[in-house]
Amino acid sequence: MTLSEIKNILDAEVLCGEHLLGRKVKTAFACDLISEMLALANSNTLIITSLVNPHVIHTAEIMDAVGVIFVGGKKLTEDTIKKLDHGNIPVLSTPFVMFNACGMLFSNGIMGCMRGKRFE
Amino acid sequence: MVPNKSQLTLRFKIDEKDFLIAGESASKTKKALQQLGLKQEIVKNIAIIVYEAAMNIVIHATHGEMKIIIVPDQIIVLSEDVGEGIPDIELAMKEGYSTAPHEVREMGFGAGMGLANIKQCSDALEIKSTVGSGTTLKATICLNPIDKKQVETGAMYL
């Protein structure tokens, strides 16, 4: 599935990286702790979080995430995002809360992931 | 031009409460290592070590310095700080153990997984700390799979 399809499923707004929405997404990781993202999530994973600060974008960049989705309608400004990652990480915001957003993606075929393991 | 691997050292000064510098240090390290043509997984592991170690300085120390030393077959991440030190290193290594203040946790840090993450991403890890003085952390990542085996079996001293 592409990020563009995920945008439609989650009725999401693109905060940054519109040109990167063709990226393929197979797995996602949802959490609000930076160290947990770094420790457990595989590369090429979509990060779903309600933690909204510049450190999330740094973390996504460091761990080679495919993109970031903020849940509950939370947002960072596009300027903040571009300043941090030079526009290399697509960032979206969905009005759905964490549980619902995860459930919608899971029922559409997106799997959970852990570093070294994949739960299917 | 690709820099000479045997001569490259990256340095970052880290100050207390400067949270953005930790992420920036890791991002810059990642970009520099990518330019050297290292494997994606190795680059990611080193970036994670730098991020976590720099964040430890930001949260727990007064100030410190990170060095990323690139020698032909290894990369060494050296973090030296002046600060409160770690009273019990074994306890600090346990996943979930944290002394980070509430405002740090609100930013998503201080989950007590930093040192455990660093260990997971390293082939060898040494931590020396003096309470009231500071902490030195040395993480070594081998670029050659044969060296990795020697480190794991204790046959190689770094």
Mind explaining what this structure looks like?
- The complex is a heterodimer of chains A (about 120) and B (about 160).
- With about 120 residues, chain A is α/β, with parallel strands linked by helices.
- Chain A is built from five helices and seven strands, in the order H-E-E-H-E-H-E-H-E-H-E-E.
- In chain A, strands 1-5-4-3-2-6-7 form a seven-stranded mixed sheet, with helices on both faces.
- Chain A is globular and about 35 Å long.
- The two termini of chain A are about 15 Å apart.
- The model of chain A has no long low-confidence stretch (mean pLDDT about 90).
- Chain B has about 160 residues and is an alpha+beta fold.
- Chain B has a single domain, classed as Heat Shock Protein 90, CATH 3.30.565.10.
- Helices cover about 40% and strands about 30% of the residues of chain B.
- Chain B contains six helices and five strands; from the N terminus they run E-H-H-E-E-H-H-H-E-E-H.
- The longest helix of chain B has 21 residues.
- Classes of the chains: A alpha/beta (about 120), B alpha+beta (about 160).
- Chains A and B meet through helix 2 and helix 3 of A and helix 1, helix 2 and helix 5 of B.
Topology record:
The complex is a heterodimer of chains A (120) and B (158).
Chain A: H1 3-9, E1 13-16, E2 27-30, H2 34-40, E3 45-49, H3 54-62, E4 67-70, H4 78-85, E5 91-93, H5 98-107, E6 111-114, E7 117-119
Parallel strand pairs in A: 2-3, 2-6, 3-4, 4-5
Antiparallel strand pairs in A: 1-5, 6-7
Helix pairs in contact in A: 3-4
Chain B: E1 8-15, H1 19-35, H2 40-60, E2 61-71, E3 74-83, H3 89-92, H4 102-106, H5 114-121, E4 124-130, E5 134-142, H6 145-152
Antiparallel strand pairs in B: 1-2, 2-3, 3-5, 4-5
Helix pairs in contact in B: 1-2, 2-5
